[in-house]
Structure formats: structure tokens, C-alpha cells
Amino acid sequence: MQSSPTPTHCPYCALQCGMNLTPAPGGGAEVTERADFPVNRGALCGKGRSAPAVLSSRVRLTSPLVRSGDGTLVPAGWEEALDRIAGALARIRAQHGPDACGVFGGGGLTNEKAYALGKFARVVLGTSQIDYNGRFCMSSAAAAVTRAFGLDRGLPFPLADIPRTGCVILVGSNPAETMPPFLRYFTELRENGGTLVVVDPRRTRTAEQADLHLAPRPGTDLALALGLLHLVIAEGRTDEAYIAQRTTGWEEARAAAMAYWPEYVERVTGVPVPQLREAVRMFCEPASAMVLTARGPEQQSKGTDTVGAWINLCLATGRAGRPLSGYGCLTGQGNGQGGREHGQKADQLPGYRKLTDPAARRHVAGVWGVDPDSLPGPGRSAYELLDALGTDIRALLLMGSNPVVSAPRAAHVEQRLRSLDFLAVCDVVLSETAALADVVLPVTQWAEETGTVTSLEGRVLLRRRALAPPDGVRSDLEVLHELAARLGVEKGFPTDPEEVFDELRRASAGGPADYSGITYRELARENGVFWPCPAGAEPDDPEDACLDVYAQDPAGDEDLDDPEPPGTPRLFLDRFATEDGRARFAPVSHRPGAEEPDEEYPLLLTTGRVVAQYQSGAQTRRVDELNAAAPGPFVELHPRLAARLGAAEGDLLAVVSRRGRAVAPARITAGIRPDTLFMPFHWPGEGRVNTVTNPALDPVSRMPEFKVCAVRAEVVETA
Ligand code: SF4
């Protein structure tokens, strides 16, 4: 065990704040400030500061658990637990075929684990049925960006550009709750004379800091973006030279936007015309501007088109692929970016390659030493996979996810999990999903193992091992190694993360997300490396720096960074990653949500997060100080709606949809639209809002519609 501080990164969100971790004399560890990491400069939120609490054996699993004859989970040895999993997977595969075994991953897994899990599914199990919870995170933005720019990296520019742009439109994002250290970028933006426009149905703590807050009706962001584009065209604010030189598809997109007259957009969205005009002025007047989106516009059954509409706004005004300007998606999970690049997604191979691309299959199969024809094709998306459990998918291996709390229509998903012939879960705690498993494997976590993650700005980072894990736990890589061996694949699943990363580098070489020029040695030396980072002439030389192929500043006179971070911090400055180098407009139109209010369900429900909890809460609900700050769910509603329902502060409200109901205390605030309820989603039990949410899927990204569904509300108990 080391006693000096180890520089590492927070285990939670995609900001991946730097921190120092020091083993504490009596056990556990202490977090101290790491001021040299430029993203957060030492600042941490309460989740990051308290992260060592989840390392404590008081809250975590330290022994495998197996389902006993009386139905309870009981401690077991590792050999027995691994034998049971391998035996069940082999039996079910033999009886029902490889696709009867499913694999479900997570956006918190390191790049190495995501890579190994995808390889395990396709090479060892031979199944096409693998996807991960990142599908519920930013998949709509990924689909829209790929369609428009030909390459998806959440932010195609570094965070450091944000304070230096002229205006940011922040759509459906609440960093005051999700990633508080990120707020300083907007504070600095405004100190530098820039403006912040926040689009959110709620007047969040982030919206309170904005120069302009637009509060659209949930599910109408697409119409809002089209209305802004209509005004841009009507006011002659388009950048015609840029459109001609760097884009295609403008005429169709222009024609689509012209139907969105401001008065019509006001009727659809509820945003007054003067606010629309003010937003356009703020966005168009400065020399540079950005649009940043998060889950608000993305978690909709039209999420891809909604993001596409915001990208259209950037393209029409010449904002994409220019210094200090552009469109970016704020990824949520810790490795939400890297997690979608290296093969745990249903339709992709490592390096962000398409599973349907014959050349990609040949390349990756070559690295894996298998026949390309043996690789299965694309499988179901996350919700569709969960929905198929117990039907043609009979066994599931799940790593780094807790869908009993985080999936839409969660009661149904829970029932599907219960109907499986066999469920194995790897986790650090006994999550609500692990509690349903036939075998639970206790695994190491962030501070106990080395691995890489890729932050929301595409910065590949090294999380270093700072502590020895407790007795009784093993790493996910060891689990995959052991299972592969038991299933007849003795080689190809190393347990050393650096060895896995070196293979990942080779597998990603030449792909869209090319990591081949990134080495552990370089990551240990630097504060991260931005991908793409292709290897130079000697890719196996660990000293070899990557070639900077995308980042040229066409003007050649922008002092963008000092010093310039390694890799490719900025994409698309000279060309987009499409075949012709041009960005593509999407001719999108607004459409209603999958479920509109009616007489029976007259209200809209939207969901989100609170600062003291993270995702399904599996980790943070086990931290005393975070629980004290956010002990349970609540229903946020406007005073006028509360009066109509006869609800007072603290009364228990039932929120009911066609899928079920969630019950939580009322929290009355004028900072929400009177037609909308809000609930955070971090808790299980009767307050589980995902019992209520709608799994209607976006046709392109297969993202469920977490952000809007029709509900009714009633008081079930007064305070
Ligand atoms: Fe961790 Fe995100 Fe908080 Fe930073 S903002 S400390 S990365 S949870």
C-alpha cells in the first residue's frame, strides 16, 4: 500500500475531476486537492470528495454470493461462483444457441473493461445480444453528430474553449446538480463578456445563472430549435459562405425551418416570441458561439432529430468546426464517451467501428485472431435487450449497471430480470439488480485498479491504482479471464489493464476513435491525451507521439491553447469526418412526444438528477453525508398545480402513468412550469420514478423517452 498521494480521477461523472488519493492510517483513503489537473483545478463536488466511503468494506461486497436452495443469496468461494456462471452460460448456449446469452455493460466501466466485455460477448459467447446503459445516456446525440459530422466525440473542442466563446446555449443540462465544478466555465464565460442561454422546463440553479432562460414545455425542444433557425433565416443571420463551402443539405433544412413561425413556436413550446428573438440575437451577434446539449433534448423518442435541429442552428450560422465555436454533447457517465467507443454497444466494434462494416470486421477479427465471419452481427439496443429477457434471451451477464432503478418502465424490466433462467452480476455493492442474481461477483473499483477512461471532452485519462483491494474481491478483467478459460478460450483475455489497453490500441488503429498512439506511459506523463491519436511510423514504440491529423487551425492565427494538450483537442477545423468533408444538415420537423397529456393523464412528467446522488444511486446511497443531503425522491410542482391538486409541501403525491406509479413528497416551487412535474431518478422502491417513465424509443438511436410522459398526480397522504 502506498502512503504518498496518488493522482487519479473521480469515479463518478464524465467531467472526471482530478483528485489526489492517499491511503488513510486506519484504513480507507483521503481525497485531497489536485490543482494541476486543468479541468477542475482542484474543485470537487460532494460526490467526489466522499468517494472513498464506497471503498469501505462496510458498504460493499467482499465475497461472491450464490443463490441457495431456499432462494437466498449466500456467500460462496470464487471457484464455485465462477463455475456456476460458466456452467449456466455453456448450458444455455448449448440448449438455445449463442443469442440466448445476453451481456449488459455500463458507461462507468473503464475502456479496458468495455473492450474486454465486448470481445467476451462476441468471441467467447458468440452472441449478438450485448448493449450497455450508455444507450440511456447520450445515444441520441451520438447518432445526430455522426449523421451531421461523420464522427461522434461528445465535445469536439476542449472545455477550455467555453469561457472564450461569445455565447453558449445550454440545452437540457443542469451542471449545478450534475457536475458543479463545470459551472465555473460559465462564470468565466460571463466575466469575459459572453452570454449564457439556458433551455430547461425548470428554473434550475443553472438556469438562475443564465442571461436568458427559455422554459419550453417538455418534449418541444425540437420545435424551439426550428423556431430559432426560422428567425436566423428571417433576420438574415445565416452564414451563406460557410453553408456553401462546408455543408450539404441546406435547402431541405431551410425549407423545413421556414414552417416554424415564431408565433406557432410560442404556441407549441410556451416560450414567448421576444425570448426567441433575444436568444437569436445573443447567439448570432458574437464572433463565436456554441450549443451544448445534455439529456433534456436527447432522452426523447425524437432525440436524434432534436439534437439534429440544434446542430442545424450551428451549421446555418457557421458555428461548427470553427475556433471557439461548435456543437457539443455533455456526456454524463464517468466513461460515457470511452464506453461507447470500444465494443460494448450492440452495433459497434472497438475504435467506434461499425459492426456491419466488412473492413472493420476484418481488422478487429485480425487483432482478435478469429474468423471475421464468426463475429455476430448487431444485436438489440439496451431497452429492447432488457425487454427480451426471459423470452429468447435466457441468461444475462451484467457488469456496471443497475437497470432495476435506471431503466425505463422499471417494474417491467425488474420482472423480465426475474424471469431469466440465469442472471450473473458483477458489482461492488449489492445493488437492486444484483439482489436478483443467481450469482453475484464482488469486484474491484476505481481506486483499487488501474485503467483508462475518456472524459466528456474526449480526453483519455489514466486512473491509477492507489490502494490494495480488500480480500475477497477480484477485478472485472480477472472475471472475464476466468470465465473465458472455463468456456474454452484460454488466451486473449489478459488481466493486466495495460496489456488490454495495448490490444485496444491495435484494435482501434485506423478507426474513427483511434487510440493507437496513446500509451500508458504518455498518459502517466500528461494530463490526458485527446483522441483521435493515431500512432506514428512506429506504433509499438511507447515513446511515439500520436500524429495530430484533425486539429489544424485553418486560419493559423488562433492562440487556442497554451500549452496545446497532446492528441487532437479540436475536431473539424478544416474538414468534417464525412466522405466529402462537409457537414450534413438534417431536414427535421417537430413531432409530439410518444405520449401526450389527455383527460386521464393530464400532466407532463420529466426526470433528472440531484447533486448529492449519482445515477441509480447504487454507490452514493451508501454514503452517509450524501444521504443526509438527499435522503429520498420528491415531486417538484408549481404552486398553481399544487393548489389544484390540494397538495401542500411534504404531502405524499402519487404520480401515475400507464405503466405504474411512484410516490414521493411534494416539493412546491415556482421554478417549474405549471403543466409539468419533476422527479429525480436515483432511488428504488415506491419512489422509483422509472416505474412511470415511457420506454418509447427513438427510431435511430433507440433512446427511451425518459424526459417526457403523460401522468396524473394525486395526494395519497398529507404531511
Ligand atoms: Fe466527480 Fe463529477 Fe463531482 Fe467532479 S463533478 S467530483 S467528476 S461527480
TrEMBL record:
Keyword Cell cycle: no
Glycoprotein recorded as keyword: no
4Fe-4S Mo/W bis-MGD-type domain sequence ranges: 3-59
Keywords in alphabetical order: 4Fe-4S, Iron, Iron-sulfur, Metal-binding
Gene3D superfamilies: 2.40.40.20, 3.40.50.740, ADC-like domains, Dimethylsulfoxide Reductase, domain 2
InterPro entries named in the record: Asp_de-COase-like_dom_sf, MoPterin_dinucl-bd_dom, Mopterin_OxRdtase, Mopterin_OxRdtase_4Fe-4S_dom, Prok_molybdopt-oxidoreductase
Protein name: 4Fe-4S Mo/W bis-MGD-type domain-containing protein
Species for this entry: Streptomyces thermogriseus
